[in-house]
Task: structure prediction
Amino acid sequence: MQAHVNPEKNYLEQAISPAQLRNSSGKVAWQSPSNIAIVKYWGKHGIQLPRNPSISFTLNNAFTRTQIQFSPKDSAGISLDFKFEGKENPSFEQKLSQYLHSTLPFFPFLEALKLVIESENSFPHSSGIASSASSMSAVVMCLLDIENQQLNTSLKPLDLLQKASYFSRLASGSAARSVFPYASVWGKTEAINGSSDYFGIGIADELHPVFKSFRNSILIVSSGTKSVSSSAGHALMEGNPYAAMRYQSATANANELFAVLQKGDIERFIEIAESEALQLHALMMSSSPSYILMKPNSLSIISAVRDFRKQSGIPLCFTLDAGPNVHLLYPEEYQQDVRQFIDSELLTYCQNGLKIDDLVGEGPQKVI
Ligand code: PMV
Result:
């Protein structure tokens, strides 16, 4: 598949109609992780197409586990019974149902199935950690698994991941990157072979070993709902006076980070990661209307991390998502020192002392 070509037509051709169903009942389950972007995706156009390339690490401990049980039905449309952590969740059910409707041209066989979907997160729901990347990629892995069971020939693993990334992207942009082991690039840039706006690509084979075991501790500064959602934030980029410059700078950062990840250049990694995090929040502050998602404690953590790095020489750095929580990134060999520093100096800035220790991981796993 050529990277600049939208694979939509292929996927439409692969679609299985209700009449072609081989098994109309069964059960599949997958767990799929969250990811943390180092070069950020911020700004989109068309149907979930990014304004710039982004690069992320796939996480390990923060995942969603989703099970789909399917059985035959006669009526048209989507039939969905959804539970999140054992309970009904109307807002997520509505989002999921809308998404499934939108994918019917690609998965028409879904009309012949009654779906019972159960989902749970490995991380506490009170943490304020966005779960759309893990949850939507887990659903997509299940859908493709059901589809593969209906086909006589199954997709090759790489084609499967590309397709999973494509459909995860349609559900939630950054979810496109969650399906690959260790790290992923999403968004076309000439400097990265095979990169595409339509799906992410896996770059595990390109990574220097130091990054394959990188650690990520998430410091929960606030678990409250954000005042401006990610979708609203993406939309505000269309009027942001710095948008064009941002897309250029993000592309340059993605190109350079890709080389840095290959070389294992931690010093440059830190500079790019922190600059990207602060650029993301600078874009929020320069949107119209402007808004601030960092909290005073986010800044206290950032400042303490920089002091610690200077004094200890330990290559600890931070990044931020679209929210106040701070992700700390560091090589495995410094885990003990960094965790001691977090416990003694940083937990005081966290809501109820909450942090989640994670690391770079292998991507989605089949459970059933
Ligand atoms: O996938 P979305 O639409 O929730 O956007 C995610 C944007 C950031 O998390 C801020 C950056 C990124 O690349 O993941």
Remarks:
- The pocket of PMV is lined by residues 37, 40-42, 54, 132, 172-174, 230, 234, 280, 321-322 (CB under 6 Å).
